[in-house]
């Protein structure tokens, strides 16, 4: 259960500040990582390691519920691009809810079909969506 | 062989990047409340976040940084290295014993029911990419993921402030995730005065 007694302005300040600190921390850890990799690169890293390296920095992921995100003013979400590259949204798959064809079999499973809509935070490249299904304890994605 | 996560693959598609191993900076907005756990963390986003963490750890080339469990072994899969690679700051509290629950049923307004997070689902690609399954089959990979329970934004910011100065083997050098940001924002524990003071301290350090 949530307590929704926090002032909206405080929520906004909290979100922007924590995301900016998160971004700064990732940068600082990225610098530490580069130093570490540079100091060990000459002797211990093999070619195989390099194939799957993630040397460029530290990944950052924030999950937030739809209700809270939708209540954020547009101007705030636009600030996010300073710290985040992408915004991905999980939503029920729209298409299958309309397909009531001769086989009624899909109707029961339609609630297990979802779509991941992803766009860059600046919203300049449009959005791309990918479907995925939830089968009991397994999430099957299709890209 | 390393595998990529759903979120990595999807984000790479939007810019037609070939590589899916570059760092990810992403906000994941979860589906409606019905799919959420008691603690406000959606089961789907929780599973996708863990899938991404598994992928980062399995693809990581960060060598062992001197944790006590290593034998100078830099191999993720074969060694006993337990260096932190990904930190997940998760809203809620760790499971408590019955006695702890009786003594502490209402800690800062967050009751123990919030710690009931469903086990993450296995995430697999239709085309045969089995990131989660691969990770689950290699228990050593899971040792590199540190889950830290937090109950307020203040705790998150405090951890972020000292993370780069932690002992090297405890620094999450491949990823930091914050799970359940909406719940953290609305937890009612974000005192304006305390938070303003914290902001000031952080900016003074800069």
Describe this structure as you would to a colleague:
The complex is a heterodimer of chains A (143) and B (206). Chain A has 143 residues and is an alpha+beta fold. A four-stranded antiparallel β-sheet of chain A has the order 2-3-4-5, with no helix packed on it. Chain A has helices at 8-44, 47-51, 66-71, 74-79, 94-98, 105-109, and strands at residues 59-64, 86-92, 113-120, 127-135, 138-142. Chain B has helices spanning 6-14, 43-59, 98-103, 131-137, 139-142, 153-162, 181-185, 192-205; strands at residues 25-29, 86-91, 122-125, 145-150, 175-179. The model of chain B is unreliable at 72-78 (pLDDT under 50). A three-stranded parallel β-sheet of chain B has the order 4-2-5. Chains A and B meet through helix 1, helix 2, strand 1, helix 3 and strand 2 of A and helix 1, strand 1, helix 2, strand 3 and helix 6 of B.
Overall 3D shape of chain A: globular
Q: What is the residue-mean pLDDT of chain A, rounded to a whole number?
A: 75
Structural class label of chain A: alpha+beta
Q: Summarize the biggest pleated sheet of chain B.
A: 3 strands, parallel
How much helix is in the residues of chain B?
25-40%
Radius of gyration computed on alpha carbons of chain A? 21 Å
Strand content of chain A: 15-25%
Task: Supply the number of helical segments of chain B.
Answer: 8
Distance between the termini of chain A: 35 Å
Mean pLDDT of chain B: 75
Task: Chart the SSEs and their pairings.
The complex is a heterodimer of chains A (143) and B (206).
Chain A: H1 8-44, H2 47-51, E1 59-64, H3 66-71, H4 74-79, E2 86-92, H5 94-98, H6 105-109, E3 113-120, E4 127-135, E5 138-142
Antiparallel strand pairs in A: 2-3, 3-4, 4-5
Chain B: H1 6-14, E1 25-29, H2 43-59, E2 86-91, H3 98-103, E3 122-125, H4 131-137, H5 139-142, E4 145-150, H6 153-162, E5 175-179, H7 181-185, H8 192-205
Parallel strand pairs in B: 2-4, 2-5
Helix pairs in contact in B: 6-8
């Amino acid at each position: 259960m949530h307590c929704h007694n926090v002032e909206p302005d405080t929520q906004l300040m909290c979100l922007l500040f924590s995301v900016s600190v998160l971004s700064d921390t990732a940068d600082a850890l990225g610098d530490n990582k580069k130093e570490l990799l540079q100091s060990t690169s000459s002797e211990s890293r093999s070619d195989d390691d390099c194939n799957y390296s993630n040397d460029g920095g530290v990944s950052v992921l924030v999950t937030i519920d739809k209700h809270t995100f939708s209540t954020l003013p547009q101007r705030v979400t636009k600030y996010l691009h300073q710290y985040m590259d992408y915004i991905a949204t999980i939503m029920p798959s729209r298409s299958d809810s309309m397909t009531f064809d001769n086989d009624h079999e899909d109707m029961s499973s339609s609630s297990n079909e979802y779509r991941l809509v992803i766009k860059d935070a600046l919203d300049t490249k449009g959005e791309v969506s990918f479907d995925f299904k939830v089968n009991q304890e397994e999430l099957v994605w299709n890209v | 062989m390393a595998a990529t996560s759903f979120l990595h693959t999807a984000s790479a598609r939007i810019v037609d990047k070939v590589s899916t191993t570059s760092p990810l900076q992403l906000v994941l907005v979860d589906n409606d409340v019905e799919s959420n756990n008691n603690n406000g963390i959606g089961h789907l986003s929780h599973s996708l976040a863990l899938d991404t963490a598994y992928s980062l750890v399995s693809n990581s080339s960060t060598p062992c940084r001197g944790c006590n469990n290593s034998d100078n072994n830099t191999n993720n899969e074969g060694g006993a290295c337990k260096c932190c690679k990904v930190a997940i700051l998760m809203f809620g509290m760790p499971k408590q014993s019955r006695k702890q629950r009786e003594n502490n049923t209402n800690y800062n307004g967050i009751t123990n029911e919030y710690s009931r997070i469903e086990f993450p689902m296995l995430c697999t690609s239709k085309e045969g990419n089995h990131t989660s399954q691969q990770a689950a089959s290699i228990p050593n990979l899971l040792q590199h993921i540190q889950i830290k329970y937090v109950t307020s934004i203040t705790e998150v910011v405090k951890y972020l402030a000292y993370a780069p100065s932690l002992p090297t083997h405890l620094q999450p050098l491949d990823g930091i995730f914050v799970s359940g940001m909406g719940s953290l924002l609305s937890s009612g524990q974000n005192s304006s005065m305390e938070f303003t003071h914290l902001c000031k301290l952080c900016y003074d350090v800069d």
